[in-house]
Design a protein that fits this description.
The chain is an alpha/beta fold and about 425 residues long. About 40% of the residues lie in helices and about 15% in strands. It is built from 14 helices and 19 strands. The strands form 6 sheets. It has a 7-stranded mixed sheet. A hairpin with a 2-residue loop joins β13 and β14.
Length: about 425
């Protein structure tokens, strides 16, 4: 079936409401996507009819909820084209997934069989200047704990490659001292889609592990972990039209099997004795305690939802929206796009500034017109530093966004400009 955005919109109850007396125009999906009714129903149904703890009870409810939880793991594995369901770890969000890896690496110092993960002074960890803080701070902390050095692949902030990584720096920064390369697939601040295969291949060539932040990619692009070539890929549920409080870490099983635990507690153990403990095999080694049961099940429903629409169809819809929005915004006098100015290798997120107008004022005045956008540094302050600006206004699109909403955005931004001139 051809993609029909009006049919899709009927699945999202919040899109029928008004804000300030006008229809809501929700252009903040990069922050958090709205939820289709089937996802809302899936979470409510589990609590209402099937709730118990997972993997702990032999009664009927325990079996039902465990099957639903593990069924969600199967759905995510298929969504990512993972070789094994045992490579899928549920976390609270992508922030926890990245911290899981950073802390597990620091635990490798004393963990048997984890020698390849040990970092020492002289080793290097590489990220990029366009990372979300969640993919910077954990590595800063790991560098402090181990004595390793954190290095950055820079952004080109001017000219035709504005908003993209400096290509020549990839091979220079990732070198024989590099042990970890963690980088974003699609920038939440710039919309840039990075050359994942190129960076992952460079990391592999120097013997480093590669980690991909796919929080912004998962809702918008087909994800095939076998094709990408990275060692770990993570995303978060609430941006993929799923619930808050659940995320996913995928990792190559042979690496997960060697990696030390992140948290200690129930379910992640094999045996516990007063003299010490042994640990479960992945994925349960990394899922200590009672997990986010209903949220994981509802994330499985969200995966079903986007899979039924088709990720290639979603990508094409949003590529067209992005090109349409860039053309419209660039007609506004003085408006500056922060990031790539064309839709090539670009996602459905557009950040911009207006001369002499603070981005927070732009966002507030747009809200008065019923248009929801985000203003700030978007938890990616090094991007703003590179561009020499304090913040941006960001509009971001989703499966339910229409060209009429883009038109409303362009009119709204032009109205804001007129108010201040």
């Amino acid at each position: 079936m051809a993609f029909d955005v009006e049919t899709v919109r009927k699945d999202f109850p919040i899109l029928s409401r008004e804000v300030h007396g006008v229809p809501l125009v929700y252009l903040d999906s990069a922050n958090s996507a709205q939820k289709p009714q089937v996802v809302i129903d899936a979470e409510a149904d589990l609590y209402a009819n099937h709730y118990a703890n997972v993997a702990r009870a032999v009664h009927t409810l325990g079996s039902e909820v465990t099957n639903a939880y593990e069924g969600a793991r199967d759905k995510v594995a298929a969504f990512l084209n993972a070789p094994s369901r045992d490579e899928i770890i549920f976390t609270r969000n992508i922030t926890e997934a990245l911290n899981l890896l950073a802390y597990s690496l620091s635990n490798a110092t004393t963990f048997p069989g984890a020698e390849r993960f040990r970092l020492v002074p002289g080793d290097e960890i590489v990220v990029t200047e366009m990372e979300h803080h969640s993919n910077i701070v954990p590595w800063q902390l790991l560098a402090q704990r181990t004595g390793a050095t954190l290095r950055f692949i820079p952004i080109d902030a001017s000219g035709p490659n504005s908003g993209r990584l400096v290509e020549s720096a990839i091979d220079d920064v990732i070198n024989e001292r590099t042990k970890v390369v963690s980088f974003v697939y699609q920038s939440n601040a710039l919309g840039t889609i990075n050359p994942v295969k190129r960076i992952a291949a460079r990391a592999k060539a120097v013997g480093a592990i590669s980690i991909v932040d796919a929080a912004q990619a998962a809702p918008h692009l087909p994800l095939d972990v076998q094709d990408l070539g990275a060692d770990f890929v993570a995303f978060t549920g609430h941006k993929l039209y799923g619930p808050t409080g659940v995320g996913v870490l995928w990792g190559r099983y042979e690496l997960l099997a060697q990696l030390p635990p992140f948290l200690g507690g129930g379910e992640m153990i094999e045996t516990v004795d007063v003299g010490g403990s042994t640990f479960a095999v992945p994925p349960h080694r990394f899922e200590a305690g009672t997990p986010m049961i209903a949220q994981a099940v509802a994330l499985g429903t969200a995966v079903d939802y986007v899979t039924a629409i088709g990720m290639p169809e979603i990508r094409q819809h949003e590529r067209s929206l992005t090109a349409y929005a860039l053309d419209g915004l660039l007609t506004i006098d003085g408006l500056r796009i922060i990031g790539p100015a064309t839709a090539i290798d670009r996602g459905a997120t557009i950040s911009f500034t207006l001369p002499g107008i603070h981005p927070h004022d732009v966002a507030q005045l747009l809200d008065e017109q019923g248009i929801a956008v985000r203003a700030g540094h978007h938890c990616a302050r090094p991007v703003c530093v590179r561009y020499g600006i304090p913040a941006t206004t960001r509009a971001s699109f989703g499966v339910y966004t229409t060209t009429d909403e883009i038109d409303a955005l362009v009119r709204g931004v032009d109205t804001v400009r007129e108010i201040f001139t």
